[in-house]
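Retry 2 of 3 after timeout on previous attempt. Resubmitting structure tokens to design endpoint.
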């Protein structure tokens, strides 16, 4: 039975898309790492709790097939902020987050330099 579970998870990993905009932090990459970790011995892996394993697979399969998105359709493709899905994806992209971090570092560096105690010239002689 472990063989079937392993193959189902492998198929799910193959079908799960990888978002290039979220390099290293997207759900597909995380899922692949967890499956590799859980099934270290491949088809020969012994499952400690088969019921939990099956529940996890079913939950992931529902997310992958957009079960809840289809079951509970949204009237609009925006959130309470009014931001569209594409704008959210753009903001959450790894490159955008890195740019925000760099901008944040720049401001903090400027403030630190501005307010840091300067060494008086007389003390340095």
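Retry 2 succeeded. Sequence:
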């Amino acid at each position: 039975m472990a063989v079937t579970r392993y193959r189902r998870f492998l198929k799910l990993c193959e079908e799960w898309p990888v978002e290039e905009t979220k390099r290293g932090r997207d759900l597909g990459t995380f899922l692949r790492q967890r499956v590799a970790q859980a099934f270290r011995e491949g088809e020969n892996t012994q499952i400690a709790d088969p019921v939990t394993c099956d529940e996890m697979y079913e939950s992931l399969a529902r997310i992958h097939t957009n079960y809840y998105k289809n079951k509970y359709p949204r009237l609009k493709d925006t959130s309470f902020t009014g931001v569209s899905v594409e704008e959210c994806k753009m903001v959450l992209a790894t490159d955008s987050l890195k740019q925000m971090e760099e901008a944040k570092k720049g401001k903090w560096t400027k403030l630190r330099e501005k307010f840091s105690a300067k060494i008086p010239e007389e003390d340095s002689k």
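Attempt log closed. The two ends are 80 Å apart (CA to CA).
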